[in-house]
Amino acid sequence: MSKRLVLPALTAFVSATAGRNMTTAAYVAVATGVAMMTLLTVQPAYDTAPHWINALLSACLAYFVFEWVVRLRHMRRQGKLWFYALSSAGVVDAIGALAVPLALLSGLDPKTAWLLGVLWVLKVVPGIPGLRQLRRVLVVESGPLLSVLVIFLMVVFLASVAEYFLERDVQPQTFGSVPAALWWAVVTLTTTGYGDVVPITPLGRVVAAMVMISGLGVFGLWTGILATGFAAETRRDNFLKTWETVSKVPFFAHLGPAAIADVTQVLRTMDLPPRTMIIRKDTNGDCMYFVAAGEVEVDLPGRKVKLGEGAFFGEMALLGNAKRGASVSTSKVTRLLVLDLVDFRLLMARHPDLAETIDAEAKRRERENQ
Q: Which residues form a coiled coil (predicted)?
């Protein structure tokens, strides 16, 4: 009986380990391993429970080795062994499995070898969506970022040469060479200002002031480029998500890519929890709604009608009757696409076939409600 329970569970665990970048067990192993590696460097804590710390470190290492072997086997069966082995995820898995054992086999002190366990934190990097977005931003904005980097290096080198020329006679210990002046230029341009190297000549201080102002400008440019890149990537992701949602709505499914792009540009997405009032009867309306996911309930006289994915409501307010004819609320978690009156008129002008469809459905509902 125990084998019947253990073997399916182990099979499911191995399948999840092979198919996913990070499992819950992997996150627990990373957190535990890094925590134990930290305690290893605190002598009083290590002296209190050395066996427990070593055992947990060994268990975490065993898990990462097992995980790596399972993925190698899985990828070999799929014919993607070298693709995985040379990918960033494969390299990180290999480092997590082999770094500590190789250090121990090379004769390093165990406490020093286990410090390589800090590399286990790299395993969580591929699973962080924000870092993938950052990578895309860095690739897309690589030209402007490199241009600002060139400006940064030019200012650093020019400032270090200028300070060497102006300060070398009065401060030979700190400005006695261009490499020594480079330290001052870097900490000044980054506005860190450690205070250990300060120009004392009048012209030297003028150069320092110009370098500090240039530092603000350089880092302001970097910040602006990255912020603009992140904003563009966010808009792109939102556009793609809205596109996917719009294409699932039956009234939009027959439209071509250009038309769907027009629709996507004007629709707003609204996520609502259950039992949320969307429309109240007899209130003025200025928008209509499409149900992208979930379900809404329309409170009509003497009955209630449920509308599911692909349905729409509130169109009467846009077709001439500004008063809402019924109350509408969500019956479960629902995602709505909202089309405002101004955008509705522009969209209907561009796509008369869609206007005819909505108008026909609105008339049908009006007849049913009479």
A: none
Convert the pLDDT of each residue in 55-70 to its tens digit: 999 999 999 999 888 8
Closest CA relative to residue 70, chosen from 87, 38, 41, 93: 93
In a domain, 346, yes or no: yes
Per-residue 3-state assignment (H helix, E strand, C coil) for 215-273: HHHHHHHHHHHHHHHHHHHHHHHHHHHHHHHHHHCHHHHCCCHHHHHHHHHHCEEEEEC
Strands 312-313 and 287-293: antiparallel
pTM of the predicted structure, to 2 decimals: 0.59
Residue 239 lies in a domain: no
DSSP 8-state code for residue 315 = G
- Counting Cβ atoms within 10 Å, is residue 347 exposed (0-12), middle (13-18) or buried (19+)? buried
Residues 82-93 pLDDT 10s: 888 888 888 888
Q: Give me the domain span that covers residue 365.
A: 252-369
DSSP E strands: which ranges in the chain? 268-272, 277-279, 287-293, 296-300, 303-307, 312-313, 327-330, 334-340
Query: Quick check: is 132 in a domain?
Result: no
Q: What stretch of H or E contains 136?
A: helix 129-140
* CATH number for the domain that contains residue 265: 2.60.120.10
Has residue 244 been placed in a domain? no
113 and 199 fall within a common domain? no
Polymer length of the chain:
370
Pairing of strands 287-293, 334-340: antiparallel
Sign of CA dihedral 87, 90, 91, 92: positive
